[in-house]
Amino acid sequence: MAASDIVIVEGVRTPYVKAGAAFNFISAQELGRIAVSELLAKTDLDPSIIDEVVIGNIGQPAEATNIARVISLNSHIPHHVPAYTVQRNCASGMEAIAQAYTKIRLGYAQVVIAGGTESMSNIPLLFQKTYADFLNSFMRSKTPLQKIQTLLKFRFSFLKPRIALLEGLMDPICGLNMGETAELLAREWGISREDQDRFALRSHQKTAKAWEEGKFLDEVTPVYIPKEYTQVIKEDIGPRKNQTLDQLGKLKPFFDRRYGTVTAGNSSQITDGAVAVLVMREDVALSLGYAPLAAIRAYAFGGIEPKRMGLGPVIATKFALERAHLTFKDIQLIELNEAFAAQVLAVFKAFESSKFSKEYLDQSEPLGDVDPQIVNVNGGAIALGHPVGSSGARIIITLAKEMKRRQLQHALAMICIGGGQGGAMILERYA
Amino acid sequence: MKAFKVRITENSNFPIAIVTFDLEEEKINKITLEVGEELERLIKDLHKTPTIKGMILVSAKPDIFIAGADIHEILSIRSAQEGMAKSSEAQGLPTLIESLPFPTVAAIHGACLGGGCELVLGFTYRIATDHPKTQIGLPEVSLGILPGMGGCVRLPKLVGLQGALDMILGAKIWPAKKCLKTGLVHEMVPQELLLDRAIQVLEQGLWKKKKSFSFSAISWGSFLLEKNRLGRHMIYKKAKDMILNRTRGHYPAPLKALDVIYECLDRGLTDSLKIEAEGFGQLSDTEVSKNLIRLFFQREVAKKQTGVASSHLQPKKIKHAAVIGAGAMGAGIAQLLSYKDISVRLKDVNEEAIAKGLKYSRKLYQDIVDKRHMTPRELEQKMSWIGPTTELYGFKKVDVVVEAVVEDLSIKQKLFTSLEAKVPHDAILATNTSSLSISDIAAQCDGKDRVIGLHFFNPVHKMPLVEIVVAPETSDQTIVTMVEFAKTLGKVPVVVKNSAGFLVNRILMPYMNEAAYLLEEGISASTIDEVMLDFGMPMGPFTLLDAVGIDICQKVAHILHHAFGDRLRPHAILDRAVEAGYFGNKNGKGFYKGAEKNKKENSMIYSILGVYPKPQEYISEEWQNRMVFQMINEACLCLGDGVIKSPADLDMAMIFGIGFPPFRGGLLRYAHKLGVGKVYSELEILHRRYGVRFAPAPYLKNLVETGRKFYEN
Predict the structure, then answer these.
(1) Which one of A90, A174, A325, A410 is the catalytic residue?
(2) SS (H, E, C) B627-662
């Protein structure tokens, strides 16, 4: 069976909206439902022929465990269609599509809805374990005396909340915050503040241009904001049309206030959004009359030290290229998720570095030069934002649509993964 | 006919008679004369069996316990004496059960209504299942009678005076949960455990346990109110005022029921039952009750009608729908569809229009949530059936499209032709137009057979009627599917011919027109409205004009004038009002100003219209007659034109479409009661006095000449 047997038929996403804004009161499952429902409508797919629903999500809302199932049923996909949630940190959305590919490849499925969703606005505050224990022992105290004794053990420090969002962005192995790993790469690869800011500026400009050209209209579905519906979000909220280098230059480094170069302006934004993608076996897609966007040629995930997680994409790309029997030269278009400008620029350098290749890729030759002109042609997460569980799927549909527009042969989507991993997926032109 | 089976449990120490109600050759259980007699014999037999330690009543019908008494028997009652005798006899059943020497348990699953509810009130112990179909209630008042099997006497003792009034006067049906809370049932159990639990209650003597006293502010409040004469009198007064307010005295049943319940509070059982039977007898002989019962039967008949003569056509099931136009009508229809778990694409030209529509739909759900009839979670799930879109996305699997865009023929024609390419070849294209011709809308379509009118009334969630408007090209399959579709939506479908104004609006327009004439003659809008309220209409003609929109009415009036000639020439004040920018409630300029509760007549409009109402010394009977006779005459013209099949269908349409007073049995039932000859001669007089608009319809003339009537009975 040839690799081009598995195709991406269509992809739909909600606008990406910076956290705490218009989507503040919309849950991750609802964002996912909107994306999946609109995908079903746009493709006129009979939901009963879906074999599996796979959704990537990191925050995993307490009220929607196995969020994929909740999204599936709320999208009125029939009960008999199973659904599961995948979590590979920032690559969860890509992992969902990879799962779809693998299942179809194995013959376990023919039609899969994949995607990712994240509401970073709704990642909760947690109580301390000490407070939970205190409440627990209070519940177990029977007599009034016991109760008073338990109450006396109360400490105000119990009430200090744990901020799940911050804890999630902290690597438990190396103890560095994600931003600090970016600082490390910036230092190691000598990436200046100015280069980072310039890159960030380009991201905003490219995103704004893509919107002006109407490119995103093809992938974005409007979201009507309940309960009053006075707001309808049709476009991403995050990209800044009038961003200037000056403004970016004025920002203080966020993670290393004294010597750092990574600022809120040259990092990805904290954002809410969801993506849904229809993946099918080629012959099924054709029999249903679809004109697929692209075929999935190969994917790979690879690992690296957690503190250098930003370079994970290089490792994953090596394996993906091997699986696709391609070289880096064959790649004509790239989406590389912009976790941090420093991280993206470090990836570029690592691609070209013999030293890195020897040390990490077990090969003397570097993978090849990166042409910045073909990377993130419609901007990236620095402008659009990075709803962590969803971005991995977003870059794949943006890539698939752009390569179809440009009629290119091969394209590559890459994403770095907190915890020291990278993901890469190679798409091939379809027909 | 055999209705009951008895089985004795095998526990020899504690034999229990399990009585299963399973009425032969019927889908439901109901209490007929024979059923009552059979049950009486059976209970008397059990009474004589000394070993029996208890009795349980269950139903073998799925989701029905007892649907009530046989309404045919009530309709056939000829006099108050006969009604009273019937009631006394029926009252014997629960009393008999009450007097058994052993405990009795009613194990209720499914609907337990009317006589069924009254029967179980005679049992020692009642268990209901927690199934949503398990509902108990006394809807008698809605049929113009009162519970005449001891319900008025026993219910207040169980659930308190206020609870009983709520159920009986409101003709309410309570879900199991409320029955448990109010004490109407003792227990609520999962369906699977019902019989076992009933047996357990008897074997272990659990029925003897007194309910533990629980203290709450609410129970204290009702204790203070209900346990003394003064408090009870207050409740009585308040209830009476409320009924009079709501019914203007047109409905005798709730008033009588209130009196009966109140009088029975302090009396012994025998006395009380006698009062109840008297009340029942009086009500059963009223014209109002007969009308309401006939109406009930007409609805039952209508439920079985398919809309076409041939019976072999099967309706297509509607699972996916689309609504075009997210205005109040479109959004209302979308909400209704989503409520029935039908997926609906809601399309409009821009996001702002859709957002308004979504807000409207959500508000309808929010109102249900606020009444605690729905949880917020269910609201979200229902809303998720509505998929907003500005494109014709997701139309390839729809079974029906309901168009509700502006009333502009060329826009509709364009829309329908573009839809044809986007929907499956067998999808139905329905239009919610209220004034345009279905044939015209379909004129440019390839498949004219699937175009049909589906005319909902505003507001969609409140108005039960749907006119299924059929053009000559419309196929029977399309009709059958739409009639069934309307029924699944919980609406009352009436098939009407495609002609100007269809049915309801056509009849309404000359009525409103006549109101305009009266206004011009110097009678104020509020006086005219009052006259029609007294007649029993839910709102007067000018309130209705404001609500519907004066501009809309004017538009329709001109269409009708164009179609039917000078007989329906619109009164000039409509044009004058619209020209001056008076559109009614929608722009806050109409015959009235202010919100519902404190609305006042808007005298500003009079100078614009050039009319000068004077205070009236008396209310002339002719005013009402002129307005109502316009409707009757137009109804006859509709029948003559074949717009609608029968007077019964027409009456149903008027009742469910504009709220024509149900107690009058419908527009033509009212005319029937007056007598065909009287109606005709009255019209002749009006004709001479006011001109061509009162010229009697040929259909009516024909009835008079051939000595026929609107109705057989």
Answers:
(1) A90
(2) HHHHHHHHHHHHHHHCCCCCHHHHHHHHHHHHCCCH
Residue of chain B whose Cα is closest to the Cα of A73: B381
- Do A76 and B345 count as a contact with CB atoms less than 8 A apart? no
The fold adopted by the segment(s) B320-497 is Rossmann fold (3.40.50)
Which residues on A lie below 8 Å from B358 (Cβ)?
Answer: 224, 226, 229
A421-429 and A294-303: which strand pairing?
Answer: antiparallel
Rounded to an integer, what distance in angstroms lies between the CA atom of residue B173 and that of residue B189? 19
Distance (Å, whole) CA A303 – CA B563: 80
* For range B168-174, the mean pLDDT: 95
Give percent of chain B above pLDDT 70. Answer: 98
Q: Provide φ and ψ at A365, rounded to 5°.
A: -85, 135
Instruction: Domain B4-285: give its CATH architecture.
Output: Alpha-Beta Complex (3.90)
The ranges assigned to domains in chain B are 4-285, 320-497, 504-706
Inter-chain contact B394–A230, Cβ cutoff 8 Å? no
- Say if B375 is an interface residue toward chain A (CB within 8 Å): no
B397·A44 Cβ contact <8 A = yes
Task: State yes or no: pLDDT of A46 exceeds 80.
Answer: yes
Q: What is the ipTM score, two decimals?
A: 0.90
For B483-601, where are the E strands, in sequence order? 492-497, 592-593, 600-601
Domain B504-706: top CATH class: mainly alpha
Is any Cβ of chain A less than 8 angstroms from the Cβ of B395? yes
Q: pLDDT category, B226, cuts 50, 70, 90? A: confident
B4-285 and B320-497 have identical folds: no
Question: Is B394's CB within 8 Å of A33's CB?
Answer: no
Size of interface A-B (CB pairs under 8 A): 55
